[in-house]
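Honest question from a wet-lab person: if I give you the sequences of every part of a complex, can you actually get the arrangement of the whole thing, not just the pieces? Trying it with mine:
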Amino acid sequence: MTDLEQQALERIEKRRRRPVRFADDTITMAHGAGGKATQALVAGMIAPAFADATLAELDDGARIELGDTELVLTTDSFVVRPLRFPGGSIGALAVNGTVNDLAVCGARPTALAVALVLEEGLDANVLSGEIDAMAAAARVAGVRLVTGDTKVVERGKADGMYVTTTGVGMLDRRAALARRDLRPGDRILLSGPVGDHGTAILLARGELDLEADVVSDTAPLWPVADALLGAAGSELRAMRDATRGGVATVLNELAAAAGVGIVVDEAAVPVRPAVQGACEILGIDPMYVANEGRLVAVVAPSVADAALDAVRALPAGSGAALIGRVGDEPAGMVLVRTAFGGTRIMDMLVGDPLPRIC
Amino acid sequence: MKFVDEFRDPELARSVAAEIATQVEPGRRYKIMEVCGGHTHAIYKHGIEDYLPASIELVHGPGCPVCVIPMGRVDDGIAIAEESGVIFTCFGDMMRVPGSTGSLLDAKARGADVRFVYSPLDALKIARDHPERQVVFYAIGFETTAPSTALTLMRARAEGVANFSVMCNHVTIIPPLKALLESPDLRLDAFIGPGHVSTVIGCRPYEFIPATCGQPVVVAGFEPLDVLQAILMIMRQLREGRARVENQYGRVVSWEGNPRALWAIEDVFELRPFFEWRGLGFISQSALKLREDYAEFDAERRFAVPGVRVADPKACQCGEVLKGVIKPWECKVFGTACTPETPIGTCMVSSEGACAAYYSFGRFARSAARTGADR
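Yes, you can. This is the full assembly:
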């Protein structure tokens, strides 16, 4: 390697380590895609304004101490189009998305608040179908829906309906999650095949003239989190649900937060053949495609096999796999050993050509 | 996945790599250009360079259709997209290419109705579904995508879809290759020929390269084993002192190409006298425009476009990168002013662009020795 190349590589690394800045003139779809632009918006503009230590963690949910108990609080908005898609709908997504943010923080979901923004002209049957879907999803997830709000906006001002859910749960006593304390040798566990949700939505939009039997993986993740806490206890270092930006983005965030390197074994990553096929045709890497019922966990090597067995014993976790490990180098980066036998970087998603998916 | 995994088999890769190593002459260095952006992407995505001896260097060529579009043409597209009532359609990668006042994505954020499609037929469908709107397809690509644009135009005319038009930026592969071969600072030993383009034009058009310049050309597919095998075929030619056009991608590419696709191109398009290529400058008879018969579907006639030439940013060395004269990291702005989030040159925009591919995939592979990471 020449000195020039070495210098260029160092420039890139220096740049990567710089604090993110938000410098755009307008909001574009990239700011909602979950990748670098989203990170710049959240970490560069929003978080600094509040100067709050808990917010600055930018975790999936926030831990709040109330007397002797520790609560976890989170919120999420859902703007998916189409409203219904194979395997789910916006109502189910709105419940599962929020309970999953609680679950990966180590909290059993307790209660939800829901806010609906409805567009003038929305078919009442569609709305009642989504309310039923929410109720059914809440039953499955074992969470109560206890308060809410409804607003209506003029035709053309919303895409049928938008849903925001806010959830609260109690931190599980077994949880000792420490996202910043990943250690070399730790293993990366993935709870099931990647890319189902994003691919299902993309195909359901019917704009691509592509048909495949793919259904969304939207599902509550507390049972998986519960099993992991049971099997790994305090040796469970971190959990993230791999929604927007996919598993690749979550791994990058984990590597960056802990200042460690993560190496993924591409051949070990479970992907359904139909998803793999659709992604091949569309030129998309399934590792960047959104999931709504998959989590990534980091566990100590001594409990990795037990954790995997525990997750696999669940119906929702039968496709789980250990897909990689934590190393020292290169700090803050994710590498892939390709199935072909080469090595490459798995970077954060930059732009996202895919439309709203969650 | 069936029909894909077979071409990504690491066992086979190791044996092909061993065979490549036996062809290397001690002390000799090899520069092989992969003409096509699809190959660049495959090389980085699968880590193909990890299998090559240090004496073989892959040089990324001008075959990324998004990367070669000059800023002025992006500005023209944005001008059309911002006309009221227009639905502007293009391939996803094209939306991020910067013009002089931002990209199509920026125009979309300002209110223009810009949509990405995977096929020009999707754009035609949008036109049928919205007869009250003007629907424009921003056509880019080499002979690979030109036939699908041609067939779409044929169908639009047959069906009388009057609100559909095409802004044509199709380019042809042979003229830039000739221009490359004529540039005095170029030192290449061989070419990996573009697979997709060759499905249309065949292998014969490359025969001038070995005949007049003495370099082997091997047309290759896009799976990692395709690329490795093509490199082996090239190394064998170099070792034996031969130079000819060979076809590694026989399962898709025929020697004479696809006559029906060529006929469709011929029927709808004609050569422009000249066209500006980003980084390479003006190249004569290197691009296509709609024939007079299809003038009514020509967006450049239907709408007033500025048609102003915008010089490439001074600091940007995309031209040298496209010619393979410098590597991405040798560019003055690479990784500083020019990054995938804020691309200056088009090589950084498309994931097939040499700079973006190096930035996101390649740099670790090449720096592995430095970091000493787990291999």
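Two things worth pointing out. The longest helix of chain B spans residues 354-371. The radius of gyration of chain B is 21 Å.
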